[in-house]
Amino acid sequence: DIYTFTLTENVAYELTATDEVGNESILEGEEKFIDKVPPVIHEPLRAIDTWVTATSYTFTAEDEHCGIKQVTVRFGEDTPTVLTVDQETGAYSFPVNANGTYTITVTDLLENTSNYEVSETQIDTVKPEITDLTRRESDWQKKATYTFKAADPQSGVAAVTVKIGESEPVTLTESEGVYSFTVEGNDTFEIEVIDTVGNKASLTADE
């Protein structure tokens, strides 16, 4: 006769067969290949720990039982991207070029699954803002003073320059994000603002 039984855990077991007059046979065994444990995802490391226009994350994953079947990463609700392990380092990596949530999913050969969410908040691809350009004087003058605001809500302003015509940048004064400069002749001037990751904004006007 053939008998079957099911095990759901890794355990030692004992089978006993007894005939009609009480003779017994015993067989002992041990189940070692039940795997209900999800893979382990180690904390991803960001390539650059500051504001950037793009970066990447690197991480490792392991499954001590049946082994890893697939590793993916998904940005927001986008379609997951399958990642390939680096054969030299044993690590996985993925690029990041937008702020939001990146979900890493690791699946083993028995479909046990682990997830790890990475929240990215320091990607800056937005130009700085130049606003409120104003001429203080409203009539004819020998020279005119202009004011404007420069701001960058993400990585911050790194540099502000004003060039009048083909001359070298003029001297600026600044107070709480408001800049001012003087124009001593009728000419075209250009304001340029650069943030800390290199995004650039410019504004051209005529005096």
Overview of the molecule:
The chain has 207 residues and is mostly beta strands. 0% of the residues lie in helices and 50% in strands. The chain has no helices and 18 strands. The protein has strands spanning 12-18, 24-30, 40-41, 45-46, 55-59, 61-62, 68-75, 81-82, 92-96, 100-108, 113-120, 129-135, 144-151, 157-164, 173-175, 178-183, 188-195, 200-206. The N and C termini lie far apart (103 Å).
Q: What is the string of SSEs from the N terminus onward?
A: EEEEEEEEEEEEEEEEEE
Number of E strands: 18
Radius of gyration, Cα only, in angstroms?
Answer: 33 Å
End-to-end Cα distance: 103 Å
Helix/strand-derived category reads mainly beta
Strand order in the sheet with the most strands: 8-7-10-11
Q: Enumerate the spans where pLDDT stays under 50 for 5 or more consecutive residues.
A: none
Morphology: rod-shaped
Mean pLDDT across all amino acids = 95
Describe the sheet with the most strands: 4 strands, antiparallel
State the helicity in percent bands. Answer: under 10%
Per DSSP, what share of the residues sits in E-state strands of 2 or more residues?
Answer: over 45%
Number of helices: 0
